[in-house]
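Can you give me the bound-state structure? Components:
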Amino acid sequence: MKSIIAAAAALSLLVAPAFAEQSVKIGFVTTLSGPAGVIGKHMKDASTLALDMLGGKIGGLPATIVYGDDQFKPDVGRQVSEEMLQRDKVDFMTGFIWSNVLLASYQPIIRSGVVLIGANAGPHELAGAMCASNYFSASWQNDQTPEAMGKFMNDQKMNDVYLMAPDYAAGKDMVNGFKRYFKGKVAAEVYTKPGQSDYQVEISQIRQAAPKALFIFLPGGMGIQFVKQYAQSGLRDQIPLYSAFTVDETTLPAIGDAAAGNYEVSFWSPDLDNPRNKQFVAAFRAKYHYMPSYYAAQSFDAINMIDAAVKAVKGNLADKQGMIAAIDKADFPSVRGAFKYGPNHFPIENFYLLKIVKDADGEYVRKIQSTIFADHADAYASECKMK
Amino acid sequence: MGAAMTAVLEQLLNGAQFGVMLFLMAAGLTLIFGIMNLINLAHGSLYMAGAYVAAATFAASGSFLLALLAALAAAVALGAAIEIVVFRTLYDREHLDQVLATFGLILFFNELVRMIWGATALYMQVPAFLAGHVELLSGSPYPTYRLAVIGAGLAVALLLHLLIARTRIGMLIRAGASNRAMVDALGVNVTLLYTLVFALGAALAAFAGAMAGPIFTVESGMGESVLILAFVVIVIGGIGSLRGAFVAALLVGIVDAMGRAFLRPLLASFMSHATADNAGPALASMLIYILMAAILLIRPQGLFPPRGR
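Here's the bound-state model for the whole set.
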């Protein structure tokens, strides 16, 4: 009896690898718990939609997406990534909202040879010295978005701008990116405590300083609180509010009309006028009944990028070089319109000025006002030594 | 009035407002810890429950008063439920067991609110009759709602003081804070006293949460940061002492506000701007804990420990 079972087990082991080659597994690391879980929800919903629209197949092969929760912790993110590589034997990795989680998980993924597509975070290290041939960004490099805001405010000849960001790596990146293109006078550079909820002290300081404009980077709950408190203070009409990654589709439902008239900047907006984006936004809203954010758009593109790569090598997942070459062409329908990849595998794309306005349904949305940068590359490409 | 003076006074007001919110949290916590000797990490969850119920009720009914009442009712009900189901077994156990159990409660409630209300933060408006500003200091409008928070907090502090100092229940609470065993030995129904104290603490936390809703984000996990500060406050003030909680809360609030506002400019006057920009916020966020450590060094039992401790 035992020998029959052993034989059956051995036979099933022989059969299993044959099945593995017939399907595609994509590992998706994101934040599904805690207050930031709303971002993970956007990303999970968008990637599920992308796979559905492809008929559940990537490049013609049946595919599954394995989701992992990094809990906004770099060590957990790394652990989850390693499990996906070793236990689930994924063929692609994507996701990664946070720069610190991505940086912690980067080396094991790159070393394994699996293709990694960053669907949000774009730390400057990965655009520069740490670039790798099997890493691509489906989003942007962190500095680019505040660079666009800096250029806009510089072109408007604004002076006396007050800067505020949380005191951690991304916050410093944002301020640096802004100052790279803004050459006017900076009234003050204030770093707040990450996770801080009460900004009345900072708002009083802003009132004392009386700058001409305010630029902030306060993602997630921090932004919701600051914008609400700022509107309540009555300063909004005197000192206009400009932000990056602060007032978006994940936070607008909670901010409401406190954000009306604010300015933001991004490479994408739901009202971006191209056929692919119209299709994406309509399908997303029809299925999930809420407005997708750029997190969703980036995740949607990442899945489609992977599909284009597998199609190009006709399902031969062992041909990593072929897939990398295919992704590098950026020859797939993207929601941001046509774009190219730079030598460091970061997109060269447009950046737009957005304004928070009420749409026809009475809801607050981000609407494109103008193009700040056309085909903007990041500032770190020259540091990348990839051949 | 000079600009610098206005700045200082405005920040003092900010600190007082933050301190008053901390007091509401700390009052419940100090009573529960002092009388029942129970470390309740789930106190932040009661604050969160108050905020969520208030936000949902306000969105549905449009009445802020109704939202407050609903939050209080929900907290008392929830508090009683937790007390009967979870805490009755924890009173006699070590503090570490209590920490573990109530930490589990935090995780449970965080996921529960996400299941009920979703992962996106809830939106709570400032009620119309409290919107707008009051010009307290010339040229410096202060949000009316924040003044209302200070007023409400002071009113609650006064009511609590009257309750504790002038009623029989208050006397039992004070006695329990000083020497629980003696109160039990004197034949007082300690179980009922515990339930009452816990319900009172829960109501205070929920009230703080409901008042915080319009200013802060109503999201899963919102109670944790306030909870940590509330613990700092009761340690500084003296565990079991309401007067200590009040003084310590105002102290912590004002020190925090002043640190965040003036440390960076102060450091910039004798350091380079870049260094001050980095050191200022870092020091400011540590200031409260440095204060706590300093007070513990001088007076380990806190500023106003109840007699008998």
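A couple of observations. The domain at 14-298 of chain B is CATH 1.10.3470 (ABC transporter involved in vitamin B12 uptake, BtuC). Chain B touches chain A through 49 residues (CB under 8 Å).
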